[in-house]
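pasting for the record
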Amino acid sequence: MRRGTHFPVTLLAIVPGGHGVSSQFGKVFQITTFGESHGGGVGVVVDGCPPRLALDVSEIQTELDRRRPGQSRLTTPRQEEDRAEILSGLFEGRTIGSPISIVIKNKDARSSAYEDMKNLYRPSHADFTTEAKYGIRAWAGGGRASARETIGRVAAGAIAQKLLREVAGVEVVAWVQQIQDIEAQVDLESVTTEQVDASLTRCPDPEASARMIERIDEVREAQDSVGGIVNCVARKVPAGLGEPIFNKLDADLAAAMLSLPAVKGFEIGSGFDGVALRGSEHNDAFVPGPDGQPHTATNRSGGVQGGISNGEPLFFRVAFKPTATVGVAQSTVDNKGETVTLEARGRHDPCVLPRAVPIVEAMANLVLADHWLRQQSVDVLPNL
């Protein structure tokens, strides 16, 4: 098939196994997100959450407030309260084992801001590729390709976080480690969510955070954008989560992070820096632990060996590209193949990093909750 052409709709209807946009994630703790950026609302259905978990909508709202737009001058000016409404799955403040449905209404959508761009393709955006695949796209705000889709992930991640903290004792903390060429100094063993949220940038290094704010202000004034890196650590992850072949814990984390809008890179532990070391330097030596279990003297593996958690802190990094939609004049083409100049309008983050932190945490919590529940079904026989 020639690039840019599409199967006729009548042919699509008879292709066996045909499907639309993939919107599910997880195997036991499974989520399905729904909604478009400028539609009536967005949300999520969580299936597989164990019954009797105490849960209040305020716990979900806390995480949504960390993600919502308009929270500071460093983010998009779109004003959305992002108020969560739980429609099912709870009774008297506890989960009952049935699907948990959460909806968040869109209140400040302005589709008219995208009217001038509906027939052209924004550089490095999903406009062209979505249309090439489906033959149609929701051009207002990017539809499902918009970062607004991640609201459902954050809402579900708040439930996974509650489960992990109360039942498994796992704590996940993410922070902005780098914006463009400005890098922070952060102790991954002691950094807290309170320290992260104390800064507009969600960088717990005050000196680096101040420089990051100046840089974001600078590119915002220039109607441009910058990217960066979010670091994440999960503490007290029990050994044994993950599977050794196609469901490796680090592979599932990579898939979760790379599914996020604007993410272009993932590394765990020593990551790409590990290639500069020899095996004898890179190996994590086992030592007796205070709990009677083996521990490692170093953690270059990032808490995962052979695709399975080893009980050490799980540490990874996620690289976000600069926001694709900018006000700087750019050359592109329209849907007729004609060259046009684009000066994008709309309300966009000059840097997605500050609002990406709770999204990274949410996806990490979803992966860990799913694998923790999977592990509960492993029946380890006693020595016979």
